[in-house]
Amino acid sequence: MKDINWINRKNTETTRKNVRDAVVLFEHKEGSKLVDTKDIGALVRSLGVNPSGSQVTIIIDQLAALNAENSQNNNLLSMEHIEIVVANFLVQQKKALFRDDYHL
Q: Which superkingdom, per the lineage (predicted)?
């Protein structure tokens, strides 16, 4: 039986890779690794979840806070920041769907 921490780590790595792949699809300019703020909702939906409008707003606010210190253009978000915030959101969504008491 595999260690549960190893499985969680592997799932997180897979999730982060999926986010990086989605960023490439939504890049502002090819190779820039920057995504326009208006495309974040579509990017998250392309990863198989359907966030509410308020969840998308929270994600954008978190990205804007990370991006504010490093960028001249507040409408373009970096791959690194998107990877961190969106991967964390996706992991939280998966955890919310998991029920411990399901098999009792």
A: Eukaryota
State whether the Cα torsion 4-7-11-13 is positive or negative: positive
Angle between helices 79-97 and 4-25 (to 10 degrees): 130
The full set of domain ranges for the chain reads: 31-93
> Could you give the CA distance from residue 32 to residue 12 in angstroms, rounded to a whole number?
24
Helix or strand (DSSP H, E) at 37: none
Q: What is the pLDDT of residues 55-81, one digit of tens each?
A: 999 999 999 888 777 656 668 888 999
Q: Find out whether 34 and 76 touch, Cβ atoms under 8 Å.
A: yes
Distance CA 11, CA 83 (A): 14
pTM of this structure:
0.78
| CA gap 15, 71 in Å, rounded | 25
Write out the two tokens for 17.
């890779």
